[in-house]
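Hello K.,

You asked for the raw outputs rather than the summary table, so here they are, unedited. I folded two proteins back to back in the same session to keep the settings identical. This is the first:
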Amino acid sequence: MIRFRHLAIAAALAISATSVAASELKVMTFNVRTITGNDGLNDWNHRRDLFADTIRQLHPDVIGTQELHKQQGDDTVAGLPEYTWFGRDRFGKHTDEHMGIFYRKDTLKLVESGDFWLSDTPDKVGSITWGNLFPRMVNWALFERISDHKRFYLLDTHYPYRDSDEDARSRSAHEMNEWIAKLPKDVPVIVTGDFNTGPDSESHKTLTATLKDAWETAPKREGPAETFHNFTGNATKRIDWILYRGVSPTFVQTVTTSKDGRYPSDHFPVFADFDL
């Protein structure tokens, strides 16, 4: 009788552990740092393996990247074959910077995907307004988790970087809010991005009127708040965010992985674990 009771308890604990593991959704936002920069010892060839190792360390289910060139995406999945990635670049091709979305093929199914531009003509590929130097865009996807068929939307973006672009960033935030408002209310939404502005900005205020910031709301967090460090390891600005609605963050981390004084990017990636 005692033996059977122990077996029943063990089975219940195993089911409970499986349930907890199944509820986890691991998300990362990662500005890759463009391959075209004149970065010397910090160029992509010197960072490629460390970039993949940083992802491998936390093994997120889905990653929103910024500044990604096709070679960088292809190099990464060559080293991490459980992942694939997709997305057009900001000109609608595959020759410039992408907001590439990576996901694990063993945990997620891509149901639908698309993109739109942060401009007065969001459906026009490569469109530029609001004083932007380059096209700015959003890459998005509807994912279904293979284990339990739960779905969520992921949007990935990269806002303009100049101090004078604050109005364009604010307009971008309003446009994204309007797009998200049209999504089904019962399907969670997660937003990843390099917003090139801080949490005291109008852009953050606009987006967090309907979304929450994982760094501000997770019950447990690790690492510095700031994310941009320019390959120094000493970050000065919190410009990389993971925002959400319809899920619950349990943990968030600014990832400061380095090797021999070298970093995988000039930004620290941000990682969040959610209950889906």
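The second followed immediately with the same parameters:
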Amino acid sequence: MSTTQTQQPDFIQRHLATIDLFTINFVAVFLDYHMDYINVFQQLALFVGINISWFLTAYFHKAYRIRNVMGFRNIARSVFNLMLSHITTVTFIYCYSIGSPFPKRIFTLYIFVSFFSLILARKFYQKYLENKERRGYQYRNVMVLGDDRASAKRLIKFFSSSSTFGVNLFKNDKINIYRKEDIELLKKKITHLKINDFYWSQAVPDKKLMRDLITWCENQMVRFHYVPEFSHFKLRNISVDLYEGLPVLHYRKEPLERFSNRVFKRCFDIFFSSLVIIFILSWLIPLVWIAMRFSMPGPLFFIQERSGKNDETFRMIKFRSMKVNKDSDKQQATKDDNRITKLGSILRKSSLDEMPQFINVFLGTMTVVGPRPHMLKHTEEYSALINTYMVRHLVKPGITGWAQVTGYRGGTETLDLMEGRVKRDIWYLENWSLLLDIKVVYLTVKNALMGEENAY
């Protein structure tokens, strides 16, 4: 197969969510045409209720957690389960807001038209993806390493099946990995083919060699998946998915791999950053600009390239707190740093220098809560010293993070301090929830008001 440049497969989940929402709203317009309303409020309540109901139903049924577009029978089963919960919720909302039950004829039409429309919409989308794949349009490079075990054959069959899309499959079934030289050859092949997901389905060699490969994959941001046996792993925060009945172990659990969770987090980011930009930055930027004109020469903002999600470089915005200097991209701020101005010291201790990063959040290059982005020089240095350092780049960087509110804010002058920060960043990645983000924001505000020893 060709080794075309790949994209994240998230677009399939986004497309399915968009198709579903468009379909149920189209059916709602049809329903609206055949119904008499007492007032506009009732009409609006029905449309809002239908959308809220579908959003909640899809979330709790994990409707968009799938990694592929399923066969017709599975599509019908999935849509049936969604519609059952959706109809129950809509009926409750309608009766509560309007005070009367659906007319039976219209209600029956809504059920059948919605059900078959959703199935047909998904099936047409499946055909669209098949057509794109026939033209060689691939999205994600996948390698399966396996011998003659049945699990390897089933996994290869799964990725090769007509119901799986966006996968450029590479088989490595004739290589037995039992020596260090074999592992090194495999690493070169993974790098050359630009593999995104690596599946191990083979007898486990020396455990040290296995651990070396896992660590290497994570540092290269290649997601490692093991098709079991579990007994060879030290049990940790792992997760298991079923690919048509075949259990596949994901070495690292990532809640933000779920499409629905990313939607919730992005909505929170947009909402929170919009409030900050409108109600705080709108007056804070002019105020800091005026103060800066009287205290130090130079630009208002300090814009620096930092390491972002998937180690992609982005431009982070801060209020400038230092004199213009040549070491800003190489040297981290330290206590009593003579580069920091008097105004800059006030901004840094109160964390106000970080406020412009909400612009980054609104634009989507950062998130409110996540691992703090490091300078490019630090990423290069620490990725060579700390085995799991690059794992933190699997999610967007944040203005604040779990490490920052648990004692690891500020400088990381020693390797132990950076290792502690990385461990907490990875813990956050593996345990994310919207409530955890809210907790981190609360602790960040609380610490800023009380003052922090490491804020300098």
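The two ends are 53 Å apart (CA to CA).

Happy to rerun anything if the numbers look odd on your end.

Regards,
P.
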